[in-house]
Amino acid sequence: MAPHPVIQAIIDFSAGAIGGTACVLSGQPFDTTKVKMQTFPTMYRGFIHCFISTFRHMGVRGLYHGTSPALLANITENAVLFLSYGFCQDAIRFVSRMDKGTNLRKLIISDIQKACAGSVASIFSAMALCPIELVKCRLQVMHEMKASGKITSGQSTVWTVVKTVLKTNGPLGFYQGLTSTMMREIPGYFCFFGAYELSRSTFAQYMDTDKDSIGILPLMFSGGFGGACLWLIVYPIDCVKSRIQVYSLAGRQEGFIKTFRGIIRNEGFSTLYSGLTPTMIRTFPANGALFLAYELSRKFMMERAGA
């Protein structure tokens, strides 16, 4: 028996939050390195140099700068994302039922329909994510901002960054980079959920079982594969977003189009892919952990709810 819609929403929200926590804890040092390389591409020769330099100057703590807002960001993003993902799938099932006369709960939607549901769901998660990600990115590159002379004094805590944004730009200042965040999320999560579901379907077909019984390693690989597809498609957009959110700390920053053109004109197209290496290294353990934690916790809660 299917759980009550409110219980189902709580389960999806909670499982998404658990998945987001697992994602951050397994991949934060690589995310820190990615943001540093995106915003200061000429300061580091590559991923290893950036990683070692950060560790040498700031220790392990430096690699985990921004972890608190990163945890909040990922918990919020994935909780809202998977909650919305469930609602969007239900909406697709409802429309399909009207067309086919099929019972809502018995209708299995296709992988491409799930990809579309994930894409629409990302609109809601982007609204929740943007303010927190701005704080995270600024904390991660505060050392480089001071070293490059873009700012004179650092902001070492979440609260000092929040106060500066409120004082300088007001509440709307937290939504600097929202356009690029939305441009990243909508196509990115279509690829993310599409690749994840397609990979699970392929494993299930090969193993002659259903998608929920493919095992831990195929599940984690599917999550990593989904993450890899997302980043390969939208990475240049994410680079522009990071520039807008970080450089706005030193004054007014141009919008997405002007920032994008400026990077191409002054630094070359390859700069848009600075930091891709740590991102791709991070994506398999982080997104594998995300979906493993999400699927297992959701299955556990569904069983406890009697579904």
Task: Describe what is shown at a glance.
This protein has 307 residues and is an all-alpha fold.
Q: What do these coordinates show?
A:
Helix 8 (216-247) packs across helix 9 (256-267). The model has no long low-confidence stretch (mean pLDDT 85). This protein is mainly α. It is globular. It has helices at 5-39, 47-63, 67-100, 111-140, 142-147, 158-169, 178-207, 216-247, 256-267, 276-304.
Write the layout of secondary structure elements.
Elements: H1 5-39, H2 47-63, H3 67-100, H4 111-140, H5 142-147, H6 158-169, H7 178-207, H8 216-247, H9 256-267, H10 276-304
Helix pairs in contact: 1-2, 1-3, 1-10, 3-4, 4-7, 7-8, 8-9, 8-10
| Number of H- or I-type helical stretches | 10
Q: Radius of gyration from the CA trace?
A: 20 Å
Helix content: over 70%
Order of helices and strands: HHHHHHHHHH
Give the CA-CA distance, first to last residue.
5 Å
Which residue ranges are poorly predicted, with pLDDT under 50 across at least 5 consecutive positions? none
Which shape, going by the Cα principal axes? globular
Average per-residue pLDDT, rounded, comes to: 85
